[in-house]
Amino acid sequence: QVRLVESGGGLVQAGGSLRLSCTASGSIVSINDMGWYRQAPGKQRELVAAITSGGSTNYADSVKGRFTISRDNAKNTVSLQMNSLKPEDTAVYYCNCRGTTTLIIPFDSWGPGTQVAVSS
What we know:
The chain is mostly beta strands. It has strands at 2-7, 10-13, 18-26, 28-39, 46-51, 57-59, 67-72, 77-82, 91-101, 106-110, 114-119. It contains no helices and 11 strands.
């Protein structure tokens, strides 16, 4: 079983910065893709940023140039540095990891979510 724990959410003024972190633990052999998604009230969950095990990244157009995703493979951790935050970035942010367990079974796990609120 794979468990994800997120940290770093909070309330910040527009233009400010926050850093989210997520650590995966459990019976993990390898993690392929790690990413951050968000869901605002009344909206569908959307991809914010993703990173492969090789370091290739993918960003939503709305966050390009403001957010940076990174990972530490040795610690099974993925982080999201969010700069120049806007009120429209307000949402619950979810960590997602996909990989393989020690039983050689694929997993696709989600964290419980962390709230990010940006005031104008």
